[in-house]
Design brief:
By secondary structure, the protein is α+β, with helices and mostly antiparallel strands. The protein is built from four helices and 13 strands.
């Protein structure tokens, strides 16, 4: 699926959000500590009949564990909210660029996907989609193994289905000026050449290695040359730097 949206390939980085614990979390933590102290520690724990061990009551040790667990839950919840905030911000950008969140709920054939190879990423154009019997292990995500696994072909798949695999051919990175092919990956300011089916082999890739769907609008008056939409380029860089996947 190729949209005709285009824009400057500025490749700007998304600024990192500061890690600030929300005020409601702080209030909950303060309330819990105050309740524990008022209920159990008015007389230093001795009134509750608890023994003193090395100058510290067993109750105080127990409260310390409760507070530690509560603080850990705050941090876990904060991380979840950061992910939701990132996704919500992304969807706002997509809506402004003419897309809706529906476009990001499923993958279809002829989509363009960013594949994380560990040390670099590439853009793959999807020819076929299939489902494995179960989520592949890390060893099964390798190309040679994926080729041999039984598959059930489908027209589209939910973005969070970890059983999904995609048959892709990968774009070549080319110079923006004369469209000659470049070596390596993530060449700054490059455009992308979509190879013919006869030029390169198609390869299976697991959903677990796919970072996100991207839009690759055609470059006017250039045969098989595309650019990556700047919103998607920024998202790709952000996700790849963290080796995260949108929708999983």
């Amino acid at each position: 699926m190729h949209d005709e949206l285009d824009g400057p390939d500025d490749g700007g980085e998304v600024p990192a959000e500061p890690d600030v614990v929300e005020s409601d979390d702080q209030q909950q933590a303060d309330a819990l500590i105050a309740a524990l102290v008022q209920k159990h520690c008015t007389n230093g724990g001795a009134a509750a009949g608890l023994p003193i061990v090395s100058g510290v009551s067993a109750l105080e040790e127990g409260i310390g564990k409760v507070i530690a667990e509560f603080n850990a839950s705050i941090q876990a919840g904060f991380k979840d909210r950061k992910l939701r905030f990132r996704d919500e911000k992304l969807l706002k950008c997509l809506t402004a660029a003419g897309h809706t969140d529906v476009d990001w709920q499923r993958f279809s054939d002829d989509e363009d996907l960013v594949v994380d190879f560990g040390d670099h990423w590439e853009v793959g154009n999807v020819m076929d989609i299939a489902l494995l019997a179960e989520e592949p292990t890390e060893a099964q995500q390798k190309q040679a193994v994926l080729d041999r696994l039984p598959k059930r072909y489908v027209e589209n798949v939910l973005i969070n289905d970890k059983r999904a695999v995609f048959l892709c051919k990968y774009y070549n990175e080319v110079k923006k000026t004369n469209h000659t092919r470049l070596t390596g990956h993530q060449n700054k300011g490059c455009q992308y050449e979509l190879p013919l089916a006869s030029d390169v082999p198609y390869q299976w890739v697991s959903r677990l290695n796919v970072t996100s769907f991207v839009r690759m609008p055609k470059v006017a008056s250039a045969f098989r040359i595309h650019s990556m939409h700047p919103v998607d380029l920024r998202l790709t860089k952000e996700l790849f730097n963290k080796h995260e996947s949108y929708g999983l």
